[in-house]
Automatic annotation (TrEMBL):
GO molecular function: oxidoreductase activity
Species in which this protein is naturally found: Idiomarina abyssalis
Family of this protein: Belongs to the short-chain dehydrogenases/reductases (SDR) family.
Record-level GO cellular component terms: membrane
Pfam family, one: adh_short
Keyword Oxidoreductase applies: yes
Protein name listed in UniProt: SDR family oxidoreductase
Keywords: Oxidoreductase
InterPro entries according to UniProt: KR_dom (IPR057326), NAD(P)-bd_dom_sf (IPR036291), Sc_DH/Rdtase_CS (IPR020904), SDR_fam (IPR002347)
Positions of the Ketoreductase domain: 6-188
């Protein structure tokens, strides 16, 4: 499915991969519905995009999936969405033994339940029209668990399983489903990661700093949409090959991760 002249609802649009996606999608002729918590930044982004008048802003707090679903359902009642890109997410950097249960709940709300909630906003109309594409940005961490990311990895594992089920159910309705697995991407995700008490980490880590650019990841996502890929890995180095090692050499990978 070409993104040209399509209505694309994009979450996490104000920074990182989402910001790069917004710019590339607009440059390729998509009409955007831009979502994040930060309405002012979204509005500034909208005005900076080509054909700014055809894009719209829909600010939502995805830590409250039920409320986000209600607000979005009302706002988009008369707006058929061709492509939903669930890109918003929050990460974590804390040992499992030192992570509050509230942090695990926040990670599940944003990284898993918000995806389910927003999909439910658009799926019925996509099924009715027999046309649509659900794209969810998970993570290589949804295939391979590593230290300090137990809550993040758990939520990303969950969303991959959900998307696999959804893809099977939607096949007869001609609604396509793509799961994206970024490896390390040089964004603010490590800065904004939650620590064990729920505070922000506030600093970079070397893995993400040496990762691919958000622009490269965005381009990989758009190519995956256009070629109707079921699942795509976007990354380089170990973060790209780790899922293959997990599949074919799991024992070796477990030893490597334990020694990191």
């Amino acid at each position: 499915m070409s993104v040209n002249n399509k209505t694309v609802w994009l979450t996490g649009a104000s920074s990182g991969i989402g910001l790069a996606l917004a710019r590339q999608l607009a440059n390729q002729g998509a009409r955007l519905i831009l979502t994040s918590r930060r309405e002012q930044q979204l509005e500034e982004l909208r005005q900076s995009l080509p054909n700014s008048e055809q894009h719209q802003v829909l600010a939502l707090d995805l830590n409250q999936p039920e409320k986000a679903k209600e607000t979005a359902s009302a706002a988009l009642k008369n707006t058929p969405v061709d492509i939903l890109i669930n890109n918003a997410g929050v990460s974590q950097r804390s040992p499992a033994m030192e992570t509050d249960l509230t942090v695990y709940r926040t990670l599940m709300e944003v990284d898993y339940f918000s995806v389910v909630a927003l999909n439910q906003v658009v799926l019925a109309d996509m099924v009715k029209r027999r046309n649509g594409h659900i794209v969810t940005v998970s993570s290589v961490a949804g295939k391979v668990g590593t230290k300090l990311r137990s809550g993040y990895s758990g939520a990303k594992f969950a969303v991959i399983g959900y998307m696999d089920c959804l893809r099977a159910e939607m096949a007869e309705h001609n609604v396509r489903c793509t799961t994206v697995l970024p490896g390390f991407v040089h964004t603010q995700i490590a800065h904004n990661a939650l620590t064990g008490d729920g505070s922000l980490r506030g600093k970079e880590d070397q893995d993400n700093a040496s990762g691919i650019s958000p622009e490269q990841c965005a381009a990989d996502i758009i190519r995956a949409i256009e070629s109707n890929k079921a699942e795509v890995i976007s990354g380089k180095g170990m973060s790209k090959v780790a899922p293959l090692l997990q599949r074919f050499f799991p024992g070796l990978l477990r030893k490597m991760l334990a020694n990191r």
